[in-house]
Each structure stands twice: as C-alpha cells, then as structure tokens.
Amino acid sequence: MKRFRISFDLPTAKGAKAVASGVSVITQDSKAYMESEKDQFLAAGTSRPIAVQITVPGDPAHLPREHPLDGLKATRLPGSSA
Fold first, then answer.
1. Over pLDDT 70: what percentage of the chain?
2. Is the dihedral of CA 3, 32, 75, 53 positive or negative?
3. For 21-34, how does the pLDDT look when each residue is reduced to its tens digit (9 = 90+)?
4. HSE-up of 37 (CA within 13 Å, CB side)?
5. Which terminal residue of the chain has fewer beta carbons within 10 Å of its beta carbon, N or C?
6. Are 34 and 25 in contact (CB under 8 A)?
7. Half-sphere exposure of 16 (CA within 13 A, CB side)
8. CA distance 70 to 67
9. How far is CA 14 from CA 11, 38, 47, in A?
C-alpha cells in the first residue's frame, strides 16, 4: 500500500482537534480524516504506527480519562498497490 486515509469520529466538544505527523488532517462534520501526504511503502501483512494527538478543551477534572475512537477505519486510496 502506498497511499492511505484514516478516519474516525472526532469528539463533539467545541474546539476539539486532531494532529498527526506525516499525514494531512482534515476535520469536517464531526469527523477527522488523515490522509498520507506522499507515498509510503507498506508491505502486505505489515503495519506502521501513526501518532495522533486529539485535543478536547475543558477542565481535565471533568473530562473522561479515555474516549473511544468511534467509526475508526483505514482505507487504501486509488492508485495504491498491496
């Protein structure tokens, strides 16, 4: 696989955002889309870690310790090979 997109539901708190390295991040309609910025070789059956930071503004004492990433999926983009 050379190009990919990862998407997930972004917490709905006002000002929530996601950042990651090596990918473009687009937030739209309460979803975050992360798309590879350039071809990245990933052989079939292997994995590649991607660090993602999600920021939800608010008082840490009143925010949950964990938040599931609902709707999480990865997609191979057209023109990619396995």
1. 89
2. positive
3. 778 888 888 888 88
4. 8
5. C
6. yes
7. 16
8. 9
9. 9, 31, 33
